[in-house]
Amino acid sequence: MAASSGPEIERLIALLAKLPGMGPRSARRATLALLKRREQLLTPLAQALADAAERVKTCSTCGALDTRDPCAVCADPERDAGLICVVEEVGALWAMERGGSFRGRYHVMGGLLSALDGVGPDALRVGSLVARASAPEVTEVILALPATVDGQTTAHYLAERLAPCRVTISMIARGVPVGGELDWLDDGTIAQALRARRPA
């Protein structure tokens, strides 16, 4: 960016460039759009960011983000307290909620075990998951972790840690997506779909 643009603009570009999916070029375009539409975009965005920074907190029960603690899901009496769905991050929880098909509770791990990145069990919310799964009303823990090496490693570790809790431990199914065509899928997805087949 040219020095004549001013340090405020350069700072805005640099901060936007740190967001996932945003590089320097995308950040410059976003900055220009915000500055061109100050009243419609920039000012409301600045207020929304300030409100979020002040009010959003981490749920002490499940690890989700909300403006209250416990979060809306944990506080909802209509939710099935016997089911806990374990997800890697809050984004996965939001994806599950978009579908609207799960009516239990969640547990956000805060990451995955990764020897390469130096992430061990102490860095994740494992202890609180085991404590929650030990509650008498919990009957099943669903592991909804990514189908990656780290995701599978984490799932196996959690299954071992949860074994003494006497709950059913299940994993979400993997394979052919609804509307998916076989010739567009990778070999691993097809192999997993065959392993997870069920009676028609």
Structure description:
- Among the domains are: 46 residues, Orthogonal Bundle (Helicase, Ruva Protein, domain 3); 93 residues, Dna Topoisomerase Vi A Subunit, Chain: A, domain 2 (3-Layer(aba) Sandwich).
- Helices cover 44% and strands 12% of the residues.
- The protein has eight helices and six strands, in the order αααββαβαβαβαβα.
- β1 and β2 form a beta hairpin.
- The N and C termini lie far apart (60 Å).
- The mean pLDDT is 92.
Descriptors:
4-stranded parallel beta sheet, globular, 200 residues, alpha/beta, 8 helices, Helicase, Ruva Protein, domain 3
Overall CATH architecture of the domain at 79-171: 3-Layer(aba) Sandwich
Name of the top-level CATH class of the domain at 79-171: Alpha Beta
Count the beta strands.
6
What topology, given as strand order, has the largest sheet? 4-3-5-6
Q: How much of the polypeptide forms β-strand, as a percent range?
A: 5-15%
Average pLDDT taken over every residue? 92
Find the structural class using helix and strand composition.
alpha/beta
The biggest beta sheet reads: 4 strands, parallel
CATH topology of the domain at 79-171: Dna Topoisomerase Vi A Subunit, Chain: A, domain 2
